[in-house]
Amino acid sequence: MEMQTKDYDVAIIGGGAAGLSAAQALGRSRRSVVVIDAGEPRNAPAAAMHNFLSRDGMNPLELLKEGRGELVKYGVEVIKTRALDSRHSDAGFTITLGNGTEVSARRLILATGLKDQLPDIAGLAENWGNDVLHCPYCHGWEVKDLRLGVVDSAMAMHQSQMFTQWSNNVTLFKDPNKVLAAEELEQLEALGVEVVEAVVTAVLGEAGSVQGVELSDGTQREIDALVIMPNFDVDVSCVKSLGLVTQEHVSGLGRHVPVDDGGQTEVPGLWLAGNVANPMAQVIMAAADGLGMGLRVNADLMQEEFARKVAELRMKKAAV
Ligand SMILES: Cc1cc2nc3c(=O)[nH]c(=O)nc-3n(C[C@H](O)[C@H](O)[C@H](O)COP(=O)(O)OP(=O)(O)OC[C@H]3O[C@@H](n4cnc5c(N)ncnc54)[C@H](O)[C@@H]3O)c2cc1C
């Protein structure tokens, strides 16, 4: 039996802050819009979201649930499934979905976020997003004045310095195989950061309540929260047939998909919003990016429609 393909003006893969904001702008512009969402936003492990004015402390999943609710009145459809691949079609793009169906759309917005790759330390993943954290702006206030440990990484020096803004009890667990410059050691000393020459091998305590760390020298240290730096990666397999390329981000912390200033990719009609393009964007920034992309895609569709209408008018006039 031939597969039924439903047509839309715009398909959006990813229903996080970026994707839903793009959908809202497009739905309000009277576009037919479908959002395809696997429902695994990056900050899902965190109990609360911060730095989003008027939504401070809200559960991240609750924000998206409310967002999806707001889209209903604009006729935006949200399909909870994974997009598997996308190809060019007469309509623009045809997207194959994990639920066995397909959708097609004139334009495609990719808002699939990024994946945090955590260091392989026992007990760490269970506490990720709460007592194991990476971003002082997301969680710094919540761990203020607590005993903080920093796991060694390319960003450990920077994180050790930064977190002294939130606590005067910061310990850097430095890989003994790495050498810090005398100037760096002096900076850490000046900021009151203790340097322990050992690798963190396990996080101790129940999930949701870190009590300490186990170290490579066999000792344990009591801490209340652990600072790490994940590597980020983007999964663009849902557009693999379109030939989108990923590239190392300038921060050296992982991969992203480069876009031009307007969020357009090298693939005509394919736009990007949120963390998939800008790994540094926090929720309100990803939402703003999605909104901007919604407006640009609407403008792009309007240009196409204006050109078609002018051509039709000319043909009509030529025929009389
Ligand atoms: C632990 C943690 C805590 C954080 N806390 C904060 C905070 O307090 N405040 C703040 O501002 N920022 C915070 N952030 C950053 C925040 O997570 C990002 O800014 C935000 O999630 C980016 O939104 P996005 O829409 O680009 O991506 P996401 O929110 O990750 O959404 C992407 C969506 O696309 C879906 N998707 C991916 N691939 C497919 C596919 N093939 N098919 C269908 N759907 C797909 C995913 O399932 C997901 O639902 C935190 C990040 C982490 C890791």
From TrEMBL:
Residues 8-290 form the FAD/NAD(P)-binding domain. It catalyses: [thioredoxin]-dithiol + NADP(+) = [thioredoxin]-disulfide + NADPH + H(+). This is Thioredoxin reductase. One of its GO terms (molecular function) is thioredoxin-disulfide reductase (NADPH) activity. The keyword Disulfide bond does not apply. Keywords: Flavoprotein, Oxidoreductase. Coiled coil: none annotated. SUPFAM superfamilies: FAD/NAD(P)-binding domain.
